[in-house]
Amino acid sequence: MKIYQAISEKEAQTFTTAQLRENFLIESIFKSNEIHFVYTHYDRVVLGGALPTMDELTLQTYDNLKSDYFLERREIGIINVGGNGSIEADGVNYELSKLDALYIGKGVKSVIFKSNDADNPAQFFLLSAPAHQKFPTQKMGKEEASPVSLGTVETANERTIYKYIHLGGIQSCQVVMGLTVLKNGSVWNTMPAHVHDRRMEAYLYFDLNPEHRVFHLMGQPQETRHLVVANHQAILSPPWSIHSGAGTSNYSFIWAMAGENLDFTDMDFVQIAELR
């Protein structure tokens, strides 16, 4: 499990493009018939993907965690961005179609990932954070996720937001999780941009045509940088960084956070004219 160190804004000012990509871009989330994780020192979040094909995959612990089982002191949020599949948590089976989510709380010992069809496997995006309290395992379909339509054609950011794990949805200790789907012809996400010093964030870009890219904006509002991101690649966003972007086509992305609170609207907005 690769470890990503926490990078300060002053350190990031000196980075080349290659260094920015090495420290903030996760180029490979899904690996066939594997559970693949990385560990970041931003709020000690672990994130990655599970892609079961012919075989089911069992969530194991890692030496980094120094725990008897993965969720001994952790919770995990999961969103399926692939074909139909299921997750078995301590013997209880949960069927997940595309864009369905599952939260599994601290203390669950057995987690098994399965695909219904090896030719169209489930692709489970995973984000885990330390937990101090137990909350029940809960599934939420996209139709239950209070979809909200935002943006306009004029600003090229017509989109639908689905909120799963947050203060008004599935309860957790500190994980907040949902996704955004951009409509055809729209390319901008999270603009006007914002930061939130109280928590980190990770993006997973998906449903992006393989030959297209997203230009992901990061950095301090008055000194922005960018990363060029492909389908099924993820971004680590520090608390001091904006997280926004524009694609060469429409796309979808998961936003997943951990930190100080569960309030989805806890954002420090930056006006477009203030960006540099």
Automatic annotation (TrEMBL):
A biological process term (GO) from this entry: D-glucuronate catabolic process
Catalytic reaction equation(s): 5-dehydro-4-deoxy-D-glucuronate = 3-deoxy-D-glycero-2,5-hexodiulosonate
Family, similarity comment: Belongs to the KduI family.
Keywords: Isomerase, Metal-binding, Zinc
EC number: 5.3.1.17
UniProt remark on cofactor binding: Binds 1 zinc ion per subunit.
Enzyme class per UniProt: isomerase
Keyword Ubl conjugation: no
Name this polypeptide is given: 4-deoxy-L-threo-5-hexosulose-uronate ketol-isomerase
Binding site for Zn(2+): H194, H196, E201, H243
Requisite cofactors: Zn(2+)
Highest classification ranks of the organism: Bacteria, Pseudomonadati, Bacteroidota, Cytophagia, Cytophagales
Pathway: Glycan metabolism; pectin degradation; 2-dehydro-3-deoxy-D-gluconate from pectin: step 4/5
